[in-house]
Amino acid sequence: MADDKDVKVEDDKDVKDAKDVTADVKDDKGEKTYTQAEYNAAAAAARKESAAEAKAGKAAIARLAEIEAANKTDAEKQADLIATLKADKEAAEGRATKAETDALKQSIGIELGIPASLRSRLTGTTEEELRADATSVAAELHIEPPKVPIGGGGRPLVTAPEAALTSKMREAAGLK
């Protein structure tokens, strides 16, 4: 019966053949024993039955949802739409808050000279909390804030009004 272990069930025919071959073999306690082929066939049949039941269940759930949607009043449909829109709004607000917090972490981290790899680890929900945490991290790592503003190439950063004035001065001098 060593060959029975190598039997693979590929379709319903194998399952039927295995059932037909079943012998009434009994163990010491008088209970029926099964070969590996019989076990495999029974397992395959159970899997197929389970898959068919799952497919039927999914179809029934989908059909029920269609029926419930068709039976809803306009007020119920509007209430569902409002709930969906509120959930979408809350999700968008959450993403916006996260983006603002991430931008603050980067800005404060740059200002205090914290390495880029550590800026995302700053904690807090307000600018004050983030600044306090960043100051603590900078002190712990013995990081001194940059003496010259970063990005200025050694020159002080120019504000928007100063930039407008500078461009007007260049224009007046014919340096455009």
Shape: elongated
Order of helices and strands: HHHHHH
- SS elements, strand count: 0
Mean residue pLDDT: 78
Uncertain runs are 1-9
The main sheet comes to: none
Which structural class matches the secondary elements?
Answer: mainly alpha
**Rg over alpha carbons:** 36 Å
Instruction: Work out the helicity level.
Output: 55-70%
Strand content: under 5%
Q: How many alpha or pi helices? A: 6
Alpha carbon gap, first and last residue: 96 Å
Short description:
With 176 residues, the protein is mainly α. It is built from 6 helices and no strands.
Word description of this protein:
With 176 residues, the protein is mostly helical. It has a domain of 56 residues. Helices cover 66% and strands 0% of the residues. The chain contains six helices and no strands. Helix 1 packs across helix 2. The chain is elongated and about 105 Å long. The N terminus is likely disordered.
Highlighted features:
mainly alpha; disordered N terminus; 176 residues; 6 helices
List the helices and strands and how they pair.
Elements lengths: L11 H10 L14 H36 L2 H39 L3 H4 L7 H14 L19 H13 L4
